[in-house]
Specification:
The complex is a heterodimer of chains A (483) and B (94). Chain A is of the alpha/beta class. Chain A has 15 helices and eleven strands. With 94 residues, chain B is mainly α. Chain B starts with 7 loop residues before the first helix and ends in a 6-residue tail after the last strand. Classes of the chains: A alpha/beta (483), B mainly alpha (94). At the A-B interface, helix 9, helix 10, helix 11, helix 12 and helix 13 of A face helix 1 and helix 2 of B.
Chain lengths: 483, 94
């Protein structure tokens, strides 16, 4: 690593090895050098970041401290930051300026973070490759001909290319974990309700969660301490105590039971991925954990269930983009109906339209019971699978994606194939459990492979503990692209 | 359930989307494949299964009905593509 982790930079700032402004300048210098190739950022917030870094230096000089004082952090561009643009990588929000801070942004600011810019994504977080951005396709820093994953691909690429010290992403069906795996970094999707969604532009409200994307599990724990916890502004945020996730990182993992869901190791898994994940499991066993086989029998129904429910929620959430209150409005309309339809036709990209149409269909009169209600019942069965499995184990281990990062354009013409590539990540969102991705090796083509750790409800602490101990034992997370 | 029932023109109107003919054809073909995949849920016996709309056991979440100021005066209205003083402007309705 040619730039420090968050934890290392914190120490070095306190030791006055460099100032927050110098650290910020170094990060922007790196962005200026490589982002014309990687294209991780939609826009930078240089002036705001400069002010925050100067304020951090004043506090450091006064001997004050805060969890992220002076640390440069990037935000996926669907998280609102006051007086800056939040585009969701969509034409319809291209010029939308947030009138308020998301709760996570308020918390980052209060913790002293320096917010350097907004990262690219699939439009409205719908996609697995970042190719659905209205603005540009972010490239994978490991191979610029490949995708960084999605939808938080800009955040994943920015962390991997050292264009920030850590980033926030959001995960509705794997959108933190899959780009983390493709980019060789650490990513955590918290339990549904653990992190406030206030100020997160909604895609599918019963699935969406904000989470950290970092170089190490230790850094993810630092960010979780800042962004987690109940928020009265989000009535679905859980009113449960927030532990200090850094306090348990060094706990002994001996004797923990790891469940291996047999349905996640069927045919279709790339040989490189299978080998790296199996070696990951062996490493966990060598650390004193006990592997047992478990079953999640409804896994094969997860993709179908997810696309019914997430698209239904999306079709309702995205009905607010009508050209009236904010965002883009078509100039080509003489009456109200044409204004609505032309605005949405011109403002949304094809994947967003596809999902709005599918969601509208499954909620429409005559099809609601057959699709939407059926999907909700299937969701119950999938959730029960996890509840049963966690009676036998503490964490579950699986691949994140069936293959490493694929080539740009490779799956663009076949939406169903793109959807099916989310098979291993989607169930955690359907059940609401926390799950994370950590690097577990490189393929023969020198592409990162991610190991998925799935935890029980509100037990991010065990995931972070296991991930941190794994990263103390292995060096996969220290590999970085040549870029 | 049957994927034959997908009337893309009707659904597009419900969704307030105006699709080009070319989009209708392409998306229509894609929906055939997607709905065929979704139809595999028919294999599941869900006769006695309760639906899950939300993963947490949350009931109604109440709070005090207090007025709070989130935005400065006029800031929200100024986000609109067309507005005048204290109202939104839209094309003719009637």
């Amino acid at each position: 690593m040619h730039q420090p982790t968050i934890t290392q930079a914190k120490h070095q700032l306190l030791e006055k090895k460099y100032s927050a402004v110098e650290l910020l300048d170094a990060v922007y210098k790196r962005i200026d050098a490589v982002d014309n190739q990687v294209q991780a950022y939609v826009h930078l917030t240089r002036d705001i970041a400069r002010q925050q870094a100067e304020a951090a230096d004043k506090k450091l000089a006064a001997g004050e401290d805060a969890p992220l004082l002076g640390i440069p952090i990037a935000l996926k561009d669907l998280i609102c930051m006051k007086d800056t643009r939040t585009t969701c990588a969509s034409r319809i929000l291209e010029n939308f300026v947030s009138p308020y801070d998301a709760t996570v942004v308020q918390r980052l600011k209060a913790a002293g973070a320096v917010l350097i810019g907004k990262t690219n994504m699939d439009e409205f977080a719908m996609g697995s490759s970042n190719e659905n951005s209205y603005f540009k396709a972010t490239k994978n820093p490991w191979d610029l001909n490949r995708v960084p994953g999605g939808s938080s691909g800009g955040s994943g690429a920015a962390v991997a290319a050292n264009e920030c010290m850590g980033a926030l992403g959001s995960d509705t069906g794997g959108s933190i974990r899959q780009p983390a795996a493709f980019c060789g970094i650490t990513g955590l999707k918290p339990t549904y309700g653990r992190v406030s969604r206030f100020g997160l532009v909604a895609f599918a409200s019963s699935f969406d969660q904000i989470g950290p994307m970092t170089k190490t599990a230790e850094d993810a724990a630092v960010l979780m301490n800042v962004i987690g916890g109940h928020d009265p502004m989000d009535s679905t945020s859980a009113n449960v105590p927030l532990p200090d996730f850094t306090a348990t990182l060094s706990n002994d993992v001996k004797g923990l039971k790891i469940g291996i869901p047999k349905e996640y190791f069927k045919k279709g898994l790339d040989a490189n991925v299978e080998k790296a994940v199996q070696e990951g499991i062996k490493t966990l066993e060598s650390m004193g954990m006990q592997a047992i086989e478990v079953s999640l029998p409804h896994t094969e129904y997860a993709v179908a269930t997810y696309y019914i429910l997430a698209c239904a929620e999306a079709s309702a959430n995205l009905s607010r983009y009508d050209g009236v209150k904010y965002g883009y409005r078509s100039e080509h309309a003489d009456n109200l109906m044409d204004m609505y339809t032309n605005t949405r036709e011109e403002g949304f990209g094809e994947e967003v339209k596809r999902r709005i149409l599918l969601g509208t269909f499954v909620l429409s009169s005559g099809y609601y019971d057959a699709y939407y209600l059926k999907g909700q019942k299937a969701r119950t069965l999938i959730k029960q699978d996890f509840e049963e499995a966690y009676k036998k184990c503490d964490v579950m281990v699986s691949p994140i994606a069936p293959v490493p990062a694929f080539k740009l354009g490779e799956k663009l013409d076949d939406p169903l194939q793109m959807y099916l590539s989310d098979i291993f990540t989607i169930s955690a969102n359907l059940a609401g459990i926390p799950a994370m991705s950590i690097p577990c090796g490189l393929s023969q083509e020198n592409l990162p492979i991610g190991l998925q750790l799935m935890g029980n409800y509100f037990d991010e602490a065990t995931l972070l503990n296991v991930a941190h101990q794994y990263q103390q034992t292995t060096e996969h997370h220290l590999q970085h692209p040549a870029l | 359930m049957s994927s034959d029932s997908f009337d893309i023109e009707k659904i597009a109107l419900l969704a307030r989307l105006k699709l080009t003919e070319e989009e209708q054809l392409r998306l229509g073909r894609q929906f055939e494949g997607i709905l065929q995949h979704i139809d595999q849920l028919n294999q599941l016996d869900t006769e006695n299964v309760e639906p899950t709309s939300h993963v947490l056991p949350l009931q109604n979440v109440f709070r005090e009905d207090e007025v709070k100021t989130l935005f400065e005066d006029g800031k929200y209205l100024s986000l609109a593509p067309r507005q005048d003083k204290d109202h939104y402007e839209v094309p003719q309705i009637i």
